[in-house]
From TrEMBL:
Protein YjdM N-terminal domain segment(s): 4-32
Ranges for domain Protein YjdM C-terminal: 45-111
Signal peptide location: none
The organism's place on the tree of life at top rank: Bacteria
Record InterPro entries: YjdM, YjdM_C, YjdM_N
NCBIfam families: phnA
Protein name: Alkylphosphonate utilization operon protein PhnA
Sequence similarity: Belongs to the YjdM family.
One Pfam family matching this protein: YjdM
Length: 112
């Protein structure tokens, strides 16, 4: 049995191949293998130096960052261990010692 990719639109596992396209029976979305590769490349998150970030990596903040709504500042050089990558404007979810849970933008960090 062939393994087909899950639907990129709804995540359904019941996709099937029709000629050279994949079809999702649940949401009727159609895509090609090339579309899936382009979408996979688009979700790669990189740091300020262009290194690919992964879940669980250790990063360093490269710039002082003000925390909205407080007078706290995340200082340059702060190390953050065990990051999680998420979708959205702030693509790193982490916990910083002394400050708590934070969301950071990948453009302000570098991988160690």
């Amino acid at each position: 049995m062939n393994e087909y990719p899950n639907c990129p639109k709804c995540g359904s596992a019941y996709t099937y191949e029709d000629g050279n396209v994949f079809v999702c029976p649940e949401c009727a979305h159609e895509w090609t293998a090339a579309d899936a590769e382009v979408a996979e490349e688009a979700t790669v998150i990189r740091d300020a130096n262009g290194n690919v970030l992964n879940d669980g990596d250790t990063i360093t903040v490269i710039k002082d960052l003000k925390v909205k709504g407080t007078s706290l500042v995340v200082k340059q050089g702060t190390r953050v261990k065990g990051i999680r990558l998420v979708d959205g404007d702030h693509d790193i979810d982490c916990k910083i010692d002394g400050l708590g849970a934070m969301k950071l933008k990948s453009e302000f960090v570098k991988k160690i």
